[in-house]
Design brief:
Blueprint: E1 2-13, E2 21-33, E3 35-39, H1 45-57, E4 61-63, H2 76-88, E5 92-97, H3 105-115, E6 124-129, H4 147-151, E7 157-160, H5 164-179
Parallel strand pairs: 3-4, 3-5, 5-6, 6-7
Antiparallel strand pairs: 1-2
Helix pairs in contact: 2-3
Amino acid sequence: MEVFFLACVPLVCFHDASLWSHCGWSCTVWYYSMKVFISYHRADTRYRRDLGRILSEHGIDYYAVPEDADFNGKKNETIRAFTCRRVQRCDVLICLIGKDTYSRPHVDREIHTALKGNVGKRLGIVAVYLPTRNDSLKHADFSTLSPKLLDNRDYVVWANWCNLGQNIESLIQEALDNANNPRIQTNHSNPCMPIKSKVYYEN
């Protein structure tokens, strides 16, 4: 889908020790085929559906693996290849962070794939805190966050679910800006969790 968007919007990024700081104003122009990959734990399917609605309302194309995805006994190598292909066709990965997302191998693999590559190859990443968590961005429980997101906390754009609808375009733009900024390096050396065979979400 071709997207054309022109607006001056406030940008907010969350980085440093407390995971956030204000980043000023930016004038944004989109005019190309841009697509979002939604990474999520099946327990948070409700929020995945709501995010899909938000993206559609803003004219943003997206892909999310269906919650009933079944690979009919395929090997885990096939599932990994499927994941990589789908992620690599997108420009930004939005990861919905619920209370158990950090322990899900398929989410770990999707984040890893998004981080790989140099400028022009890697994806921008938006990490969205869901209301199901017991902590907050201000007082984050690092033990229940993906190590890959924490290793790249200055690259990832952090957001709260409560104001996602009104900020979705600026968040995506900031993630794209980070992905295209050669001064911001990504770390994807952390080993991936093993993915089981047969069913994508059997993790």
